Amino acid sequence: MNVQRWAAIGTGTISRSVIPDLQACAGAEVVLVHGRDAQKAGRFAEEFGIPESTDDYAAVLANESIDAVYIATPIGTHHALTRDALVAGKHVLVEKPIAMTAEQAADLFAIAESKNCFLMEAMWTKFNPAFKRLIEEINAGLIGEPRNIRAGFSVPWPEDESARWDRSLGGGALLDQGIYPLMLAHTVFGRPEVITARGNIRSDGLDLESHITLEFANGSFAQLTTGMTQFSDCSAAVAGQRGWLTLPAPFWATTDLVIHAGDAQHVFGVGNRTELGQEGNGYLPMLREVVDAVAAGRVEHPLHTADDTIAVLSTIDAIFAQLRRDRRQLTP
After folding, report:
1. Which of 27, 87, 298, 309 has its CA 20 to 30 A from that of 327?
2. Over the stretch 21-55, which tens digit does the pLDDT of each residue have?
3. pLDDT at 258 over 90
């Protein structure tokens, strides 16, 4: 296998977890790190044993020895940075969400296809053992036909100067947190027919919390919550005609699956808990698949496709439209 030479774009918290896992992938080598602050990038490179660092993004893209980039910068920068990388002929793995809107995401995937470059949103949850086992059990009919989903990701964050609280940088609850329960609903049921959302959105457009109901063609539904000023139950459950499956909190990162199906003791009692373990910091399963997909010449990964990514962002677009409409109605 030819070793892929990767550049890490961004030196924040998520990069500190993902980069060690990428370094552990056979067939990949992280050879450069980029950051807006040259000194921080240098310290990051030294800490993680990366040979080079720079604050010049154009130089990274002009470097013909770089095969792929991993982008972990504020959400509001994803579209522009990813677009430039694809135009330069680089394969790209970009943190979720891939962009601010479905239109921006579609633009990126069109460029990736035209350039024959791999592109994927780093939706690590879909690759993790507990989530994959959940989908396998649903497909095997363990709980019968799935009929409803309950999932939440609400955590009160201290208000500070971070990108989380800056709408221009993609801050707010929906794009950063709500994308996980929405992804679960889309994975199980597909695109919703009806979207109903209410919540709290600031005058600058920053969404603070929302509760969402999605209704699907066969009558199934999902009830979802997301927020950044209060807690919700951060587990998730998929229920059907014969029982239900629970991903314990935090469901997007859990290593366990609890099965409430079979005999009455498991349905109404504590359930049958399966521990599936974690590799590295939890990103290895996804990164290994990405490295293999790039090596195979794919432009997308079948487990998290362009259509999957665009569909969830389309739902987020619709939710934002409702939150903004309701805010206008309530404003004197």
Report:
1. 309
2. 999 999 999 999 999 999 999 999 999 999 999 99
3. yes
Are 294 and 118 in contact, with CB atoms under 8 Å apart? yes
The token pair at 17 is 């977890």
Query: By C-alpha distance, which of 89, 83, 93 is closest to 119?
Result: 93
Which is the catalytic residue, given 96, 115, 126, 132?
Answer: 96
Please count the other Cβ atoms lying within 10 Å of the Cβ belonging to residue 44. 22
Q: Looking up tokens 């977890």, which residue turns up? A: 17
Rounded CA-CA distance 153/225 in Å is: 6
Query: What value, to the nearest 5°, has the Cα angle with vertex 236 and ends 105 and 103?
Result: 10
Strand partners, 274: 257
**Helices of type H across 190-224:** none
Res 65: pLDDT: 97
Model-wide pTM > 0.85? yes
- Strands of the chain, DSSP E: 4-9, 28-34, 52-54, 68-71, 91-95, 119-122, 146-154, 194-201, 207-215, 221-227, 236-240, 243-247, 256-261, 272-275
Strands 236-240 and 146-154: antiparallel
Amino acid identity, position 291: V
The mean of the pLDDT values for the chain is 96
Contact 155, 235 (CB under 8 A): no
Residues 53-73, buried b or exposed e (16+ Cβ, 10 A)? bbeebeebbebeebbbbbbbb
Q: How confident is the model at residue 332 (pLDDT cuts 50, 70, 90)?
A: very low
3-class SS of residue 53: strand
40 is catalytic: no
The CA-CA-CA angle for residues 276, 119, 39, to 5°, reads 85
Q: Which residue is associated with the tokens 């690759």?
A: 127
pLDDT given at position 329: 61
pLDDT at 327: 78
